[in-house]
């Protein structure tokens, strides 16, 4: 069984073939409990807490409003959790209804999986309500409203692999969120996010285990940023134009970086990518031969690696550029767990994922190995 998945390419290929499935919508009280509109306190909230095996934090709200940058982080968390609840709701429905690709040999195994996923779904609902409550109280722009979503999977194995990858992106992004809370002086928000990072890590250990991987991927999980998470959610899951107030989230959505290489193995190799030429043509800062662009790899807590683009093919007719770069896999030092790829308009050097994101034009490409 392959122990890897090049999700960026998987998304793009499968998106095309799954176009017929109706998108997920929260309309018509899809969850049956009013979510994402749940009052605190209410009988609905108590039922979600029972299903989640625990409660929303019940302490007093922060005495003063967080910084606007911290509100942006809370809005992103809400946006992400709305996507996750949609995913787990659809997954639970697929399993419950014995949809092809989601069936079990034994009813006991099916019920066990549903027990696990039902708790995760409710826990994600509480993560969302917690973030959106703070956003509503302090943000002045109302809660983040849900979009419609398509998930590019049609079987349980791929669904759990997808859950593992988006959870890895969240686990990297919450590092960024905590760091920004610290630099913005919102120390009171850090502890709660830390509790969610551990919680999502517990979930991911299960997703990885189901994929025949060891539960704990690497000693220091890969860094991501808010911009990469927001871009990945929008590029891969969100139905374009379906989000009522996405404009209240002050983050960029990069253009997609498509990983063309399939079945990426744990070895040093060249990886093929494609990007789209923007309307208006190749910007002068890229140089006409694209030598102004770099491919940057982010893995674990190491200094991002900058690679030159090789074998650049510019197809002006189809507005598409393909190129290769080296993926310097080494099991002791680079490439296990989540690797984030980004195309930047500078050569760095980059000390952190945040400085990569600041110069990113295309990304993130997501690679999972081991
Ligand atoms: C549920 O099954 C449908 C039909 O195969 C599929 O289109 C959808 O992506 C699945 N959703 C999840 C979360 O697995
Ligand atoms: C490089 O990209 C960043 C992010 O999009 C942008 O802010 C910056 O202006 C670009 N630099 C040049 C020289 O075009």
TrEMBL record:
Question: Which keywords appear in this protein's UniProt record, sorted alphabetically?
Answer: Signal
Please indicate which superkingdom the organism of origin belongs to: Eukaryota
Per the UniProt entry, the signal peptide is 1-21
Q: What is this protein called?
A: Sexual development protein
Q: Which organism is it from?
A: Lachnellula suecica
């Amino acid at each position: 069984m392959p122990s890897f998945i090049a999700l960026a390419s998987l998304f793009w290929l499968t998106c095309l073939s799954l176009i017929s499935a109706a998108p997920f919508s929260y309309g018509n009280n899809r969850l049956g409990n009013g979510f994402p509109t749940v009052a605190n306190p209410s009988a609905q909230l108590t039922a979600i807490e029972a299903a989640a095996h625990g409660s929303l934090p019940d302490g007093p709200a922060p005495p003063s409003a967080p910084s606007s940058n911290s509100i942006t982080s809370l809005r992103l968390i809400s946006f992400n959790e709305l996507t996750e609840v949609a995913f787990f709701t659809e997954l639970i429905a697929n399993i419950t209804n014995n949809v092809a690709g989601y069936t079990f040999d034994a009813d006991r195994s099916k019920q066990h999986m549903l027990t696990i996923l039902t708790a995760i779904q409710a826990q994600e609902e509480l993560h969302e309500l917690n973030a959106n409550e703070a956003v509503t109280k302090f943000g002045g722009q109302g809660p983040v409203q849900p979009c419609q979503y398509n998930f590019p999977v049609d079987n349980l194995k791929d669904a759990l692999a997808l859950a593992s990858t988006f959870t890895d992106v969240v686990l990297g992004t919450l590092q960024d969120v905590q760091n920004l809370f610290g630099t913005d002086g919102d120390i009171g928000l850090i502890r709660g996010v830390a509790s969610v990072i551990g919680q999502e890590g517990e979930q991911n250990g299960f997703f990885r285990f189901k994929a025949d991987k060891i539960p704990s991927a690497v000693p220091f999980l890969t860094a991501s940023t808010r911009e990469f998470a927001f871009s990945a959610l929008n590029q891969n899951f969100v139905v374009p134009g379906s989000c009522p107030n996405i404009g209240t989230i002050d983050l960029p959505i990069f253009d997609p970086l498509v990983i063309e290489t399939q079945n990426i193995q744990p070895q040093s190799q060249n990886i093929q990518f494609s990007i789209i030429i923007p309307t208006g043509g190749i910007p002068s800062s890229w140089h006409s031969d694209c030598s102004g662009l770099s491919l940057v790899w982010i893995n674990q807590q190491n200094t991002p690696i900058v690679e030159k683009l090789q074998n650049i093919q510019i197809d002006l007719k189809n507005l598409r550029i393909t190129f290769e770069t080296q993926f310097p896999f080494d099991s002791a030092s680079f490439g296990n767990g989540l690797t984030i790829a980004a195309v930047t308009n500078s050569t760095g050097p980059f000390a952190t994922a945040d400085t990569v994101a600041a110069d990113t034009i295309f990304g993130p490409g997501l690679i999972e190995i081991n």
